[in-house]
Amino acid sequence: MRRRDDNKVNAIIEATVQIVNEIGFAETSISRIAKKAGVSAATIYIYFENKEDMLAKIYLKAKKAMSEKIFQGFSESASIRARFEFFLSNFVTFIIDNKDYFLFMEQVSNSPLLRNWCLEETSSLFTPVFNLFEEGKKQNLFKDEDINLLVMYSVVPMAQLAKEQLKGTFQFDETSLAAAIQMSWDAITIKT
Q: How confident is the model over 105-123, as pLDDT tens digits?
């Protein structure tokens, strides 16, 4: 049995993410990935069963990296508002700092063939977010709507603004980030 060469695996992952982001899933081939990674196609099959297995594992790796960043320093004992702000701020930071991974995950989430990959494995990575929203509903802070709807109304606008920053058409700074988080908060909270 061959030993795992982490440098080769990382080169394969980085090459895959770059190629998928450049040309999409359909045009991405093992031979293109191998060439860009500087390995043989046979080497890829040492670490991955096939293209789909490789893409699924890379997607899971990206989701885990996102979860780790989002919840780094997250305190379940903080107020709902503080956790909400913390989560969204870290989410934006992840997108900006990990453009390639984020765009790769966007490709997956927009693909009808691939969108259910690792769904069970990845949903548990974000349990604290769903708990936060559930708690907000129980405390009558958040609107009595489906949790997924509340999460989407909070997260999608932040992701879109971060994507605009990646394109150079928007710039997050302390003031604009605070304003965007406030607008997300206002969208889902009960007005008293």
A: 988 877 776 556 666 677 7
